[in-house]
Amino acid sequence: MVLQFKSGLKVLLLLSLSCASLCAGQSPQPTPSTASGTISGTVVDQSGAVVTGAAVKLTGADTDADKAQSPSQQVLTGDNGQFSFANVAPGAFQLTITSPGFAPQTSSGILAPGEVHLVPQIALAVASNVTDVQVALSPVEIAEAQIKDQEKQRILGVIPNFYVTYDPHPFSLTPKQKFELAWKTTIDPVTFVIVGGIAGVQQAENTFGGYGQGAQGYAKRYGASYADLAIGTFIGSAILPSVLKQDPRYFYKGSGSTRSRVLYAIANAVICKGDNGRWQVNYSNILGSLAAGGISNLYYPAQNRNGAALTFENAAIGIGATAAANLVEEFLMRKLTPNLPKHDQPTP
Q: Which residues 6+ apart lie within 8 Å of 254 measured at CB?
């Protein structure tokens, strides 16, 4: 009896030890209320295209189940626009998405214990105040843009006024740009009308009588007048300025006393700015006037050809006409030239 009792105690003891050993080998399972989860989603733009490299910041939840209340975690979207956060503790969370050129976007939700949470597709809107786009233009491109403005300058909206710049910071022209400006001046429709008027006055006054009268006389006067203008423009405003590196334009002053502006305008008939920005003798205009005067001897009537005298006379007339034109430009033409760009209008 005693033997049986002792045997029973041994069995109970062995069973107790087995249960204790079994329990000691098992770790406690987490309660459902603390199981971590996953948050993932996709970031796109308003067209539906994925946004790569967008920064996604997670706040409002513990981002690591093994750490105590980590404040935030951030990842970047991949090539497919997707992002993912693992080991996120359950509870309320907020996502903040930022990307250059887009307005910041937020998305919030609640993560259940052990949940794999898929955030609805997040669409970023283009920022309305993006102002950091910078485009660097070369000096040639800036000069070209300034020429385009000059080609819009027309006195009373009609007569070309291309060879004056009102821009306070003009860039020098390339030889190509000088020739283009001369070409556009000589082929402008208004130029042909003006030449026609000059030929008409000459016809009425019987200037260069050797040309005669009638249609034939008018045509010769018209051709001579147009040749004077074209030759003078190309030699004095394109060829020589390109060779001598001088700027053929008149640079509007628009400030200072009346006397200083008058002297400036007159002086610009014999001085000019070089392509280097420095003032120098206007050899282009002086030599251009002499060359145009000499060439005109080839097509004027024989009785009006006066050799060197006519050449220098025409050159002097050309220089004087330039001075007079500069005075008109300085004090009158800007007021009669509409639609000038605002930055091209210095205070007179």
A: 166, 261, 330, 334, 346, 347, 348
SS3 call for 39: strand
Please answer whether residues 345 and 166 qualify as being in contact, where contact means their C-beta atoms are separated by less than 8 angstroms. yes
How, if at all, do strands 37-45 and 116-118 pair?
A: parallel
Task: Give the model's pLDDT for residue 167.
Answer: 87
Rounded to whole angstroms, how far apart are CA atoms 208 and 227? 15
Q: Which two tokens stand for residue 177?
A: 């740009």
Domains and CATH numbers, the chain: 35-124 (2.60.40.10), 139-344 (no CATH)
At 19, the amino acid letter reads C
pLDDT the model gives residue 224: 93
Q: Under 8 Å CB-to-CB from 296, ≥6 apart: which residues?
A: 224, 227, 228, 231, 310, 311, 314
Nearest-5° Cα angle at 15, 11 to 19: 170
Q: Provide the pLDDT for residue 294.
A: 80
Q: Which two tokens mark 254?
A: 């628009």
Question: What are the phi and psi torsion angles at 329 (to 5°)?
Answer: -60, -45
* pLDDT on residue 131: 52
